[in-house]
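Example record

The entry below shows one chain as it appears in the dataset: sequence first, then structure tokens.
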Amino acid sequence: MNDQEEKLRELERRIAVLENYSRPSNPGKKLIWAMLGIILALFLVMFAIGVIQFVSNG
């Protein structure tokens, strides 16, 4: 009986660990957000350069 109780406790402990385990976020989602951030940053830099050139010519 003692061996069965020990196995039962071990299974309960494993179930508790699995229930508390949070899934890692989707790595593809992070990649998409990083790409969008880089594109947005490049757009803002080019926009700022264009404004500076426009003001310099005027």
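Notes for this example: Residues 27-57 form the longest helix (31 residues). The mean pLDDT is 90.
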